[in-house]
Amino acid sequence: MPLTNAQYDSLMREYNQKQMRNHQIVLQREKELYDKLPELTRLDDQVSQLSVESVSLLLAGNKEASQEKKAQLATLAKEREALITGAGFPANYLEPPYTCKDCKDTGFIEGKRCHCFVQASIDIVYEQSHLDDILERENFDHFSFDHYSSEIEDKTGVSSLESAKQAYEKATNFVQHFRSEGGNLLLYGDTGTGKTFLSNCIAKALLDQGFSVIYFTAFQLFDIFEKEVFQKDQEAMEAHEHIFQCDLLIIDDLGTEFSNSFTTSQLFLCLNERLLRGKSTVISTNLSMAQIREVYSERTSSRILSNYTPCKLFGNDIRIQKKLNHKS
């Protein structure tokens, strides 16, 4: 998921444009306020003078007198705010209208990329991969239970419709409480029963809330790990950090990749590291829990069983049903 140099430069230009826009807005608002409220100039002069006096007294060791000046400054601040609000302006009218108040539209906090920068970089890659188009179609607003049967299955004692409703409820609860609780989901069951669609619903909902979400098929994920470990590929190394740092990692179609000792160890390391960092993961797979244990080891299945909420989907392949309905 790394940005190219051109993409990075383009994104930084956007942040520079935001800062310039904010600066211009503040200048315009200052002119508007000071033209309407000339008294502000007098207050500003008093604030400047008292600030200098307070610092001078503090440096001279007269803390008590310095505190008195600070109290006067607080009084002037209230007077200034009352003057502005009394004229019908918001108290924070002269604050820049930041898109992201955390980094003040710089893209960085203490030298590290802000969450808004991380998400913006993810959005760029998503847009190029056309995943944004998919999420416009596959989201909670378009989720349908029409292709699930109400017939009770002998093995489970529930219908595919009831199972889908339970999975849907768990997914929506996951989204609703994500900010406060996080968590992890395991979407498992038959092929073509809506697991990928439901994971896309989750991705769309959390992206709309401003969380950083990365989606990979299992094949793509392990391909990145392989390039990073064996080829020391720079892009793969950058993507590797995104995988561990994003708010939500979605691993789709686990079990469809070529499985070996490398993929087994890398899956455990990935899931374990994200658990240690308090980051959330959604896994979709056609494998049963017994098969996950068999393919990926006891310790990996143990991590999943202990830390993931299971959501089972079963029934007829929805994609085949849609094709048959379309032909008819």
How would you portray this structure in words?
The protein is α/β, with parallel strands linked by helices and 328 residues long. The chain folds into 2 domains: 5-105; 130-327, Rossmann fold (3-Layer(aba) Sandwich). The protein has 14 helices and 7 strands. The chain has helices at 5-36, 39-59, 63-86, 115-129, 131-137, 160-176, 178-181, 195-208, 218-231, 234-245, 261-276, 289-296, 298-307, 318-327; strands spanning 108-109, 112-113, 185-189, 213-217, 248-254, 280-285, 309-313. The strands form 2 sheets. It has a 5-stranded parallel sheet with strand order 4-5-6-3-7, with helices on both faces. It has a two-stranded antiparallel sheet with strand order 1-2. Helix 11 (261-276) links the parallel strand 5 and strand 6 (280-285). Helix 2 (39-59) packs antiparallel against helix 3 (63-86) and helix 6 packs parallel to helix 8. It is elongated.
In DSSP terms, counting alpha (H) and pi (I) runs of 4 or more, how many helices?
14
Could you say which structural class the secondary elements and strand pairing correspond to? alpha/beta
Topology as a string of helices (H) and strands (E): HHHEEHHHHEHEHHEHEHHEH
Oligomeric state as shown: single chain
Strand percentage lies at 5-15%
Fraction of residues in helices? 55-70%
Furnish the topology, listing elements before pairings.
Elements: H1 5-36, H2 39-59, H3 63-86, E1 108-109, E2 112-113, H4 115-129, H5 131-137, H6 160-176, H7 178-181, E3 185-189, H8 195-208, E4 213-217, H9 218-231, H10 234-245, E5 248-254, H11 261-276, E6 280-285, H12 289-296, H13 298-307, E7 309-313, H14 318-327
Parallel strand pairs: 3-6, 3-7, 4-5, 5-6
Antiparallel strand pairs: 1-2
